[in-house]
Design brief:
The complex is a heterodimer of chains A (about 150) and B (about 375). In chain A, helix 2 packs parallel to helix 3. Chain A is globular. Chain A has one domain: Rossmann fold, CATH 3.40.50. By secondary structure, chain A is of the alpha/beta class. Chain B folds into 2 domains: about 140 residues, Beta-Lactamase (2-Layer Sandwich), CATH 3.30.450.20; about 140 residues, Heat Shock Protein 90 (2-Layer Sandwich), CATH 3.30.565. Chain B has 11 helices and 12 strands. In chain B, helix 9 runs parallel beside helix 10 and helix 10 packs antiparallel against helix 11. Classes of the chains: A alpha/beta (about 150), B alpha+beta (about 375). At the A-B interface, helix 1 and helix 4 of A face helix 7, helix 8 and helix 9 of B.
């Protein structure tokens, strides 16, 4: 049994954050925090220990998700996965993130992504097939994709 | 006057002046030059400041001067405030180089009015190659010039109008694109929220059949969501790769069912359908696979619940065929026409003008859907 993940949710829509929390917990992981803005996310990153942050691009203070990812990247204490309905707004270099789960995702798509990420974080590279709806960043594609599928 | 002091060649012109009295009797060429409607002058570059030594009547008519007002003067008295200095420099350079020149100059009459002068100047040399005169002709081309100006003004105005219209259209297009992205973003978020609401509601349900209904509903909404996501991720929002979609859908539904003992066999040609068919096709495939998962794999006589679901997509001449098969308990146990899922499949088939057929595949069931599909290139849209 691989150790479960500690997840930080950065999402401005309460409904989506609630459901994500439910799915994360159903899959046996835990949610360490929920932030709705860049400011909240910074505080949360400084005060909690998360393995993975799911980061929406559009937050209550604007399209600041990329900045959240950069902040987490500087702290080097968690890995980032973008979760957005607007993947085209993600910069080419992905701000160091693993990849993106495009909204709308399916329940199973997210569950599979959690399993894939759990393997990737705890025992990289992941052995599961890359879930549908999950796109790896160019950097992670070279490291993870070749081994998974 | 200057010309009185000039040497022989200029005197020769003076002699032609004398011919004037004998009108037509002397040199016929000189007479022709005097009488022609074309304005002409001759200047003597060997004298100080290259003065006019001959001017015909047409020149006097064109410029409004008397003969004694022009004889012995340099031609620059024709220039005025709006004469193009660069054009005048060209004339000067040509005279220094003893070369021909043709140039349009804005010149002024005695009364101050202006006219466009198509000036032509050429040097005249004697047998020894020594420069003797400059011969110049003037043609009033004001009409041509003004129409040239009008054409240029019209052209400039049209170009400006086209440019303005183009930038208006570009701005409008940009606004439309922004709006489209915004709407797309909201549609995706809203679809995600609908799914989220169902998932969260389902989590609180104790009753198994209610949970089941909600999960069926979730699968349908997720099928719609996936169509939308795939369409707007591809480069062409008008074409939909149905085989890629089917692959993801089957893996999603199988995993969601938690029935790892059921395997899938996929035989999918790359098939592209138009965007408006994407949603009904996706919903139909979702219903068929969900149905098979739900009803086909009851406990078999040998006590196992294992099974296999197959999806085949092909496009024989002008048609798009979908086959969903299972090796389950067969049609006898499949739910009847009354079920909502079945009604959904039949209605969607009507919308798509598809023929649908249930076959007893012994063991199991095979559903064959065949619909017309426009000719197309094979391959992926994304």
């Amino acid at each position: 049994m691989i150790e479960p993940l500690k997840v930080l949710i950065v999402e401005d829509e309460a409904l989506l954050a609630m459901e994500l929390e439910g799915l994360v917990e159903d899959a046996g992981h835990s949610v360490v925090g929920w932030a709705t803005s860049l400011t909240e996310a910074r505080t949360m990153v400084d005060t909690t220990a998360a393995d993975i942050a799911f980061v929406d691009i559009h937050l209550t203070d604007g399209p600041t998700g990329v900045e959240v990812a950069e902040y987490i990247g500087q702290k080097k204490n968690a890995m980032v996965v973008f979760m957005t309905a607007n993947p085209k707004r993600i910069p080419d270099h992905f701000a160091g993130a693993i990849g993106v789960i495009a909204k709308p995702y399916t329940m199973n798509g997210l569950t599979s992504a959690l399993r894939y990420l759990q393997e990737g974080v705890r025992r990289p590279p992941p052995v599961s097939v890359l879930p549908s709806g999950f796109t790896l960043s160019p950097a992670f594609e070279t490291v993870w994709a070749s081994s998974g599928a | 006057m200057d010309w009185k002091r000039t040497r022989e060649p200029a005197d020769a012109w003076r002699m032609t002046d004398d011919l004037h009295a004998e009108h037509g009797k002397g040199d016929p060429f000189a007479a022709a030059i005097r009488a022609t409607r074309m304005s002409m002058i001759i200047t003597d570059p060997r004298q100080q400041d290259n003065p006019i030594v001959f001017a015909n009547d047409a020149f006097l008519r064109l410029t409004g001067y008397e003969r004694d007002e022009v004889m012995g003067k340099n031609c620059r008295f024709l220039q005025g405030p709006k004469t193009d200095k660069a054009a005048v420099d060209k004339v000067r350079a040509a005279i220094e180089d003893r070369a021909d020149i043709a140039v349009d100059l804005l010149n002024y009459r005695k009364d101050g009015s202006s006219f466009w002068n198509a000036l032509y100047i050429s040097p005249v040399s004697n047998d020894k190659g020594e420069l003797q005169f400059f011969f110049a002709s003037q043609l009033d081309v004001s009409d041509r010039k003004s129409s040239e100006h009008r054409v240029k003004a019209d052209k400039d105005r049209f170009e400006k109008a086209v440019q303005e219209r183009t930038s208006e259209l570009e701005a409008a297009l940009e606004a439309q694109t922004t709006l489209l992205h915004e709407v797309d973003h909201r549609v995706k978020n809203n679809l995600q929220m609908i799914s989220s609401l169902i998932i969260m509601q389902s989590r609180t349900m104790k009753d198994e059949s209610t949970k089941q209904s909600l999960s069926t509903m979730l699968a349908r909404i997720e099928a719609l969501s996936t169509v939308h996501r795939r369409l707007y991720q591809s480069k062409d929002v008008s074409r939909f790769d149905v085989s890629d979609f089917a692959r993801d859908l089957v893996s999603d539904l199988l995993t969601a069912s938690g029935r790892s003992e059921i395997k899938s066999t996929l035989d999918l040609e790359p098939i592209v359908i138009s965007a408006e068919k994407a949603t009904p096709v996706a919903l139909m495939v979702n219903e068929l696979v969900t149905n098979a998962l739900k009803h086909a794999f009851k406990e078999k006589p040998d006590g196992t619940r294992a099974g296999r679901i197959g999806i085949k997509m092909s496009q024989p001449d002008g048609h798009f065929n979908i086959e969903v098969s299972d090796d389950g308990v067969g049609m006898a146990d499949a739910s009847g026409d009354a079920s909502f899922g079945m009604r959904l499949i039949k209605s969607l088939a009507r919308q798509l003008r598809a023929d649908i057929e249930w076959r007893d595949a012994g063991p199991g069931t095979k559903v064959i859907i065949s619909m017309p599909n426009e000719p197309q290139q094979k391959g992926n849209v994304s």
